[in-house]
Amino acid sequence: MTPKSSFIQEAQARGFIFQATDLKSLDERMAKGSISGYIGFDPTADSLHVGSLVQLMLLRLLQKHGHQPVALVGGGTAQIGDPSFREEARSLMNQGTIDRNLDGIVQNIHQILQFGSGENKTITVDNAEWLKKLSYIDLLRDVGIHFSVNRMLSFDSVKTRLEREQGLSFLEFNYSILQSYDFRELNRRYGTVLQMGGSDQWGNIVSGVELVRRMEGKQVFGLTAPLLTTSSGAKMGKTAKGAIWLNKEKCSVFDFWQFWRNTEDQDVGRFLKLFTDLSIQECERLAALQGAEINEAKKMLATEVTAICHGRSEAEAAQKAARDIFEQGKLAQDGLPEIVLPTEMLQQGVPVFRLFVLGKLVNSNAEARRLIRGGGARINDEKISDEGQIITDDALCDGVIKLSSGRKNHILIRCR
């Protein structure tokens, strides 16, 4: 099929489309004029991470082509928790935690999508607005009648949980019904006709499409993006140090930039298309670079993604800090993550291996000792060979001590 709408054309070319309920009809609908499409984000933490960036970029692309993005935050569904492809049930959160998490992910959404005025301005809405008002009897009678338990049991996301020891609670089993109800409610309130999400949401999305058809007599659409892994099979957004968060208080801008700079060679072209606003032609040109030149493409990827998520000035500062560290060998401070230690601690002296643990560059004293013995530990760009060396405030340089684990992991120690 040759798409008629500019959104479907570019979404296909960039690799965003994995499944769709009726792509031909959706394409025809979008070619005729602006539509409203949504993606849901449950507040399971106080920040989204890189694993959610595909969905945010999909909404960004929708907005670019003149359509209205709706970011649905799940203040209501968070009280149940999405069981899709999880090994066990999520811990239930209290309302205070949910509210804090909502504030964090709304901030992430504002970082990436355009708000303000205009027909295609972003709408952010919390499904607690309607889910908390639902009567259980009314839900069973008006909505539950449209759901087949047999069909729900056939969804891969449900089957994988039923095959495990813990099984699936009745509370979690209701999640699909509530997510489907969200689509119907958004269709009524905002005329939303498209639900998008990761491929793990396919069963829930199809249920929502069917519910709107049955209850409203309207054709609506579902579309999923692929769940990403790196070429080496690692889950997208996960590193040995943990998740790569979009909130810079949880992941510094420098660490965020460095994560993208460390992209595997085989992933550069794919990630440029998915996570930047660069033209497809420019993405393909950069991906075709060979040898040492591919590093320039990685730097471009890192800077462009960071600019979208944190702003151009922060991205360029992180790039400069990395250049100073790796290419010029300076004790760069701008953009590096920091921790603060009590002044008294350094005045008394700290064993060097312990300093690396306090700086969270390693997880244990034993790991720190192995790092030093292996020649991978440096302080202020000088290699450390004595794992028993005592570090005092004499090591402060311009008010900081720079710790390095290998060539790519760095942190600054400040005293207060």
UniProtKB/TrEMBL annotation:
Binding locations of L-tyrosine:
Y38, Y175, Q179
Reaction(s) catalyzed by this protein? tRNA(Tyr) + L-tyrosine + ATP = L-tyrosyl-tRNA(Tyr) + AMP + diphosphate + H(+)
Short motif ('HIGH' region): ranges: 43-52
Q: Which GO terms describe its molecular function?
A: ATP binding; protein homodimerization activity; RNA binding; tyrosine-tRNA ligase activity
Question: EC no.?
Answer: 6.1.1.1
Q: Where is this motif: 'KMSKS' region?
A: 235-239
Question: What GO cellular component entries does it have?
Answer: cytosol
What keyword terms does UniProt attach to this protein? Aminoacyl-tRNA synthetase, ATP-binding, Cytoplasm, Ligase, Nucleotide-binding, Protein biosynthesis, RNA-binding
Q: What GO biological process terms are annotated to this protein in UniProt?
A: tyrosyl-tRNA aminoacylation
PROSITE patterns assigned: S4
Q: Which residues bind ATP?
A: K238
The record's InterPro entries line, in alphabetical order, gives: aa-tRNA-synth_Ic, Rossmann-like_a/b/a_fold, S4_RNA-bd_sf, Tyr-tRNA-ligase, Tyr-tRNA-ligase_bac-type, Tyr-tRNA-ligase_bac_1
Report the locations given in the UniProt record.
Cytoplasm
Where it mainly occurs, coarsely classed, is cytoplasm
The function of this protein is: Catalyzes the attachment of tyrosine to tRNA(Tyr) in a two-step reaction: tyrosine is first activated by ATP to form Tyr-AMP and then transferred to the acceptor end of tRNA(Tyr).
Assembly and partners?
Homodimer.
Q: Mind telling me which PANTHER family this protein's record contains?
A: TYROSINE--TRNA LIGASE, MITOCHONDRIAL, TYROSYL-TRNA SYNTHETASE
Q: Which HAMAP family match?
A: Tyr_tRNA_synth_type1
The similarity comment for this entry is: Belongs to the class-I aminoacyl-tRNA synthetase family. TyrS type 1 subfamily.
This protein's name: Tyrosine--tRNA ligase
